[in-house]
Amino acid sequence: MSHIHSLANPPADTPLLDDVQSVDRIFEHLDNGTTDLGDKVWREPVAHYHSQAHFDAEIALMRRLPMAFCPSAALPKKGSYIARTAALTPLLVVRGKDKKVRAFLNACRHRGMQVAGGSGCSAAFVCPYHAWTYDLEGQLKNIPGPEAFPDVENAESGLVEVEAMEKGGIVYVQQEGNLDPSMLKNHFDFFSDEQEMFRTTQREEDANWKLLTETTLEGYHIKSLHKESFFPFGLDNINLVETVGANSRIIFPFRRMEKLRDVAPGERHLNGSMTSLYHLFPNTSVSVLSKHTSLSIMEPVSPGRTRIVSYLVVNRQTPGHEISLEDANRDADFVTTTGLDEDIAAACAIQETVHGPANEHLTFGYFEKAIVNLHSHLAEYL
Ligand SMILES: [Fe+2]
Question: Could you tell me the distance, in angstroms and rounded to a whole number, from the CA of residue 274 to the centre of ligand 1?
Fold first, then answer.
């Protein structure tokens, strides 16, 4: 975790606009009544939101890709672990005594029981079924009654390891094949060492993982869907949309952005004037809000069901702008109690129509450029 850039200083090779350029472009859109536009309309077959065969192909793809698993801050200490299912595979991700993060298939080599659940900090993993014990590096250390297993060699019966890597404050796991670090070249750096994780949430919803992801990737629906929640603060359909490979960034400016017109560019505090949403292909979004950043993974459970797993991290402190845990919690409550529920309800309502005869395709237009980017890359990879 030593080579981490601050979010305010993205690595030089990313083509994203910097803060000053972003504000200028937002003012241009405000003055002209325009917004960033894509250049193609995409039609996604409705079958792709309910077909088991298509879902299976997506899961197979997710297992071959480096997928965001959690922020590094979720595993702060030696022995910190998270056990959860990713692409339908129970995984155990743990920070070892050497501080390196490793990922294992969460299945005892005896009879397949999951050796850990939830999250915590532990010196070893003792299988709850028959107490076979593994160390933080996955090595089998103890079998109660070893005389019953004369041909089990501890050295060959460790937890099965899969590839894991930390980059930019995020832990990535690739379940199949070798993780090629160049696959992460378009993955932005987010979190620094000193940032603290303060909340994790999980909820399951009756919607395909893509429908839930799509709700986060455009601002064309701010006024209509979020009339009482976001619209009083946010601008409708005025967004910056930048794509970087299969990933993208969408900036949602707030009304108070207008006040920055009178402030010299070097003195503008953008924090609190907009939300930046980074989409990490295919199912992760990182929302940078004023006091906290939320990393959310739309974890597929079945074609029509998704577990939304979120990790909330306190934003980086800057001199004169310290952020308390109370501030971060209040920030998080505002988002989760209002707008998020409206997005989720929309995705669940759409899930009920995708089986029916109404549409053969869902249509995404020029305002929905980041969604088109998701689907075109997904189609290419599949
Ligand atoms: Fe929304």
Answer: 14
Element of type H or E holding 142: strand 140-142
Of 308, 119, 131, 47, residue with least CA distance to 202? 308
Report CA(30)–ligand 1 centroid distance (Å).
20
Domains in the chain (CATH in brackets) are 19-60+192-381 (3.90.380.10), 67-179 (2.102.10.10)
CA-CA distance, 306 to 204, in Å (whole number)? 6
Helix, strand or coil, per DSSP, at residue 195: coil
Give the model's pLDDT for residue 336. Answer: 62
pTM value? 0.93
Tell whether the model's pLDDT for residue 10 goes beyond 70.
no
Sheet holding 140-142, edge to edge: 124-126, 133-135, 140-142
**Ion ligand 1 residues within 5 Å by Cβ:** 343
Alpha carbon distance 213, 337 (integer Å): 18
Q: Which two tokens stand for residue 139?
A: 């090595």
Q: How far is the CA of 223 from the centre of ligand 1 (A)?
A: 9
Distance CA 157, CA 105 (A): 13
* Distance in Å, CA 216 to ligand 1 centroid: 6
**pLDDT, average across residues 249-255:** 95
Distance 123 CA to ligand 1 centre (A): 42
